[in-house]
Fold proline dehydrogenase.
Amino acid sequence: MLRTTLLAASRSHGARKLVESTPLTRPVVERFVAGSTVDDAIRVTSELAGDGRYVTLDHLGEDTADTSQATATVDAYLRLLRRLETAGLAPKAEVSVKLSAVGQFLPADGEKIALHNARRICSAAGVVGTTVTLDMEDHTTTDSTLGILRELRADFPWVGAVVQAYLKRTEQDCHELASQGSRVRLCKGAYQEPASVAYQSKAEVDLSYVRCLKVLMAGAGYPMVASHDPRLIAIAAELANAAGRAANSYEFQMLYGIRPEEQRRIAERGNTMRVYVPYGDEWYGYFMRRLAERPANVAFFLRSLATT
Ligand code: FAD
C-alpha cells in the first residue's frame, strides 16, 4: 500500500513540488545521491574506486518533455565522460542512461531522437574507453528500449541492457540476451506495474529472479547481478560457480548508499562490485523509488524531518 502510494507520488507533479520545496529533504536525499554537480560525481567515483569498487554513473533525469532538455542531458554525459578520462577513472567507471531522459517520450520521433542521442553518448564512451548501460523504465518502454539496444549494439557491442525480474516476459528476454559479449543487468524492478504483466508478490519476483539468473549464468554473456538481497547474491555466486565462471566473467551491482559494507566485502573477496551512483538536480523520481523499496527509509525520512 505504502509502496503503491510512493510510486504514484513519484509521478505526481504536486507531490514533487511539495517534497522538493521542503529544505529538510536534502540531507536524506544525500544518502542516495552523490551531489548535484559533475565535480560531486567525480569525487564520489574516485572515493569508491579507491577501495576497489567500480562505478556506473547516472546523470539524473527522466521523462524529458522537450528536445532541448534531452540535448542538455546528452551534453552533461559528454562532459562527465571527458572528466572521467581526465581523472584517469574511465577504466573504473561507466555510465547508465535512461532513454526517457534523452528523448524517448518526445511526441514526434521520440525513439529516433533517443537513438541518435544514445549514439552520441556511446561514441564518446567508446573514445574514452568505457561502456554504457541502458536503464530500464516501466513496462511500456521495454520493447522500445530493447529495440534501441539492438540498434546500438550493431555499432557498440558492449552496450549493456537492464531486465526486470518482476516482468513475466523477462525470463524469455534473458534467453534472447544471453549471447556472447552481451552485458545484462538483472534487477527486481522499481516501478508500479499491473498484474497483467508483472508478478506482484515478493516470493514470485524472487523466484523469477532466480530463473533469470540461471539463464544468464549458463549463457555466454556477462551477467550483472543488481540486488542488495543477501539470499539472491548467495544464489548468484553458487550459480556462477556451478557454471564454471571465472570471477571476471560476471559482476555484482548495488546502489550508492545502500549496504556499503557489503559492497566492500564483495569487492574484497575478489568479485567485481559496481556501485550505481546518481548525481544531478533531478533527484525526485529516483529518490521516491528508493523510499518505496523500503518502508524503513520513509521512517528515516520522517524522523529526520522531525529532528533536523
Ligand atoms: P529488495 O528485496 O528490495 O531488498 C533486499 C534488501 O536490500 C532489503 O531488505 C534492504 O536491506 C536492502 N535494500 C533494498 N532497497 C533498499 C533501499 N532503497 N534502501 C535501503 N535498503 C534497501 N530498477 C529498474 O526498474 N530499472 C533499472 O534500470 C534499475 N537499475 C538498477 C541498477 C542497480 C545497480 C541496482 C542495484 C538496482 C537497480 N534497479 C533498477 C532497482 C531494482 O529494480 C530494485 O528496485 C532495487 O534494487 C531493490 O531490490 P533488491 O534486489 O535490492 O531487493
About this structure: The two ends are 27 Å apart (CA to CA). The mean pLDDT is 94. The chain has one domain: 33-282. Residues 67-86 form the longest helix (20 residues).
